[in-house]
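Q: My labmate handed me this sequence with no annotations at all. I'd like to see what the chain might look like in three dimensions before we decide whether it's worth expressing. Could you predict it?
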Amino acid sequence: MHLSIVSSLDSHCREVAAARLGRTHSNSAVVFHDLLDGSVVLRRVYRDGQLFERESTVLEHGCLSCTVRLDIIPTAERLASCGFDHAVLALPPGVAAGMVVAELRQRPGNSLVIDNAVLALDPADVEDHVWDRHTLFESGFTSMPQDDRTSGEFLIGEFGQVDTVMLSAGLGAELAGDSRLDSEAWGSGVELLGELAPHAAVVGSADEFRPGCYDDAEATARTKPGTVRIPLDEAPGLFSTVLHKAARPLHPGRFREALPQLAAGTHWMRGRLWIASAAGVRIAIQGIGPRVWLESTGPWWADAAGTAGPGADVDAVLDWHPHHGDRGTVLAITGRSEDVDPGEIRRLLDDCQVTEAEMALHPGEWNDPFELSETL
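A: Here is what I predict for the chain of 376 residues:
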């Protein structure tokens, strides 16, 4: 059976996208899951627009992963055994499509094939989501107090996973009778999507939708921490992305001092760092709105294997240097064009590089002031 996965933060956007995806096959089921208070999972299944199943299940642990593992995937498998050719899985708000993909990987031999992973949203809300400091629970998107992701973190993660972003007015706009299609906020949101998800098809209600274009290997490559993908079109607009590379290791102290300036006004910062005080560790950096964090992703490929041979990731192969292999700093910064100064970003990053004299110092003499997580 073929699957279309819909993730969202807005219930109305989710319904519009699910209904459209349900029409891509003649024998489709559309399944809505919602995670309610008290670890209750509400499941509704529609065929040809008609509700034919509505069930509530109480999970022992009402977490997002349990919802996927114990109800969403088993429901899809049951529908496949009933003879459906296609199912649309409309996930609970805040549940990532990647969770479903990961669970399917754990079940080899099943007949479920992903056609599309779709993020449904109102583009007029994207910029506000990116800068929202509240967690998904605080904003009412999930019923789980321990879910400390922001809406921006959820959306950026989904942008890497999905192949399609499907646009419609959100619930608030619908209830207020707000027609946003020709608004300035809608247009700027669509433009921002081109910077945040350059690979994805951005589909409005009047645009053609291309089913069957999900590529699991490509989605995995895009979402690897430290990976950088940028738009091919560098035409000036409301938003822009600046890419800069530094060939020498970064001085930990100077980079720490420069980080707030690099992050100021940034919608999305991502990349990988070569820090002199941890020269053998590939450090991923990500900043989404007000949050910035760093994490170790293990050794550089040059340290682990010594050569960019079979098994090396795409970035290691493309950035391979004859002397230092894949080691190096690659940083991409996306924001409003008036807030993102390419010259200033490049100057700040270049000034962080260690000098020839500093490179001669023993790594153990470096004072590394970094914590692996920081909120600016």
